[in-house]
């Protein structure tokens, strides 16, 4: 109530907190003990800081809300983030760490099928969008869909990801089409060496930049198929569109508030930062003649971040080159696939494509 800063949160593989007050720090340690191995977020705190609402997720928990009074020991289970998903359907998630070819340590989330032994399974590599983002512990709808169909799912926090220290993020500069991709392939080799996956049954799927990574994987990599969901296929054209969108946003902001700052220049998705993140040269567009694996393109008609033309133009080029290319356009969806209908359509297209090109069993 004093308005003084009491601490700060760090969003990495799990959400962690640093509290300056030793009593708050001690209460937070008790909060962590309520869900060992999970990501525990402080959703709300009472006037008495010993009273908290916590959100826990990870492992076998898709996300659940709980009230605690650490002074009295009282606990009330409020409910699940996904109440319609039976516990026995939830695929288990765990962290793995492996070493990239150049010695860089890579952290990843591994989701295992809820049924059967995790040996010599088909794998889907699921790189995150961004690349200035990361995958942490917690429920991922697409990973869960794939695991429910019998696939092992690897979500690598390749170089360029945030949340694992400045050095890992900085190492991704200029590596969109370079070592960020090899970090993903190194994860495949790691899981094959552990006997968890069959290296001959590996596909790659991703959204946004993750879609670009998947398409580059179709040009050459340990993948028998690739799926790009609202994926970038031509980075130079994407940058041009991003600039136009940012300028339009800036003009709208300045009209609404003459004192408005050019906030988009500080935004992690801004053209200025994206251009710098590419390095000295914008990575090449996907070369249709170079694509060796079957490709599925899923595009959202109302995607303002990565326009559907990125997928449509690649579809046309792939078909002209005689490549195997499937295309699904989502008529009422945006980039984030925020609605149930959008996710169901995407999941169906992805599952059908994988069943045809890399069956789980």
From TrEMBL:
What are the record keywords, sorted?
A: Hydrolase
Single GO molecular function: serine-type endopeptidase activity
Is Zinc one of the keywords? no
> Record's SUPFAM superfamilies?
alpha/beta-Hydrolases
Peptidase S9 prolyl oligopeptidase catalytic domain: which residues? 139-356
Q: Which one GO biological process term can you cite for this protein? A: proteolysis
The record's annotation in PANTHER family points to:
DIPEPTIDYL PEPTIDASE FAMILY MEMBER 6, SERINE PEPTIDASE S9 FAMILY MEMBER
- By what name is this protein known? Prolyl oligopeptidase family protein
